[in-house]
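ping. complex inputs:
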Amino acid sequence: MKTIEIIHAVVTGQVSAREVCDAAIARIESSDREINAFTGRTFARARAEADAIDTRRARGEVLPALAGVPYAVKNLFDIEGVTTLAGSKINRELPPAREDAVLVQKMKDAGALLVGALNMDEYAYGFTTENSHDGPTRNPRDPRRTAGGSSGGSGAAVAAKQVPIALGSDTNGSIRVPSSLCGVWGLKPTFGRLSRRGSYPFVHSIDHLGPLADSVEALALSYDAMQGPDSLDPGCHALEVQLAAPSLDDGVSRLRVGMLGGYFARNAAPAARAVAKHAAQALGASDEVEWPDAELGRAAAFIVTASEGGALHLDDLRRRAYDFEPLSVDRFIAGALQPAVWYLRAQRFRRAYRDKVNALFAKWDVLVAPATPVTAPEIGAEWIDIDGVRHPCRPSLGLLTQPVSFAGCPVVAAPLWPEGADGLPLGVQLISAPWREDLALRAAMVLQRAGIAHA
Amino acid sequence: MDEERVLAYVNAAAEAVGVPLDDAAARRVAVHLARTAGMAALLESMPLAESEELAEIYCPAPFPMRGNGDDWL
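pong. complex structure:
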């Protein structure tokens, strides 16, 4: 059952939350040996949360928006009583979290059932979830292939129907890349929309949190449930809740939709360009639009990421670099050694960049671009081919997502299924102006209703 | 910077911030830093006026608004 069907069935009593919960647990137990999405299981908690929902229903109470919906979280979210790994070996020495992350608390308040914690690239520095400590997460669409990352466990868990909703984080594309490669829906909200308190940081200047899900309705409902100002998170700029679900069916007839060309076409293989064009046409886009300074935006995001990420872990890099993920430790060290002038120039550029991007959205409501240059590469691949040019695989999977998140714009990753790609999915980014998640979600709903995008 | 100069920078900077690196690790780190240096050069090529400030500027405290109990102004 999709999220909406679960909620309806639980609310009407066709099925109990406990039955939904046990079915999810059974799917996880039967499939995760192959997929390796889960690094921790909180089944007792999920059953207790399910029983609480069933009790409330028996009392005749009005049930909350996500009543009885199982979900799981990337293992950088605090879960009360569980150590927050952030994909690392080093964090295993930390004590269990004393309380849930803010977004986990909000999901609980909305009636969702937390079944566990999910695999990721160590400290979120990667796009492939090739985690040497916990093993790679395998793509449910083809287990020889990567699930993407760094929220790869989240993408795989939804694609494998282990859970209908998972939470992830996105600094440079870590929700959108696994959504694209696993063929599920993802939402990277506006920078500063959702509280990050209680999540393990990667790059304070760019970190976002958000949902991956089986449907647009699930994205919207979970996103709405997680909204709210948080004065204790210096990165949370939202001052009020602005619901997106009520306008989901408003369509795009009055929206100005464009398709990004230039950088976004040059760095996309034919299948990626084809799905973006297909989605853009379905949304009524006629013009090709140039995103300002995309290559510079990507460069600045790369520098800020390396510098803040390296600095955050400098003490451990000094004392125990051998305990880090071998695939990313050298990048962390390189970041820690970057000259300050590189970082400062990137941060100064960011203000001018933001102004140019916001000016673009004076003319457009939704912009369409591929989410990844290619479909899922095989696990262990060192290179990908984009139009005959060889690129290093691990950093290049974020080529098309980094310029957008650096500007802070909200993006829905819509799962499309290109022809001639052996049944593998490839996502499309639906990008809107800061604070206008509702517009990207409306466009996503049009693609879902048309059957063009589906998980 | 050529490969050897990047490597020399890596070794000097690692010593300055206290990260021990053997030769093999230093060479791997240098490959990554050289890639980032290319991106930094790209950013350098874009003119930025002196008036272009950092994306976020430090604020010592929220501005006290009249009528919010901050009427000491």
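Chain A has 16 helices and 15 strands.
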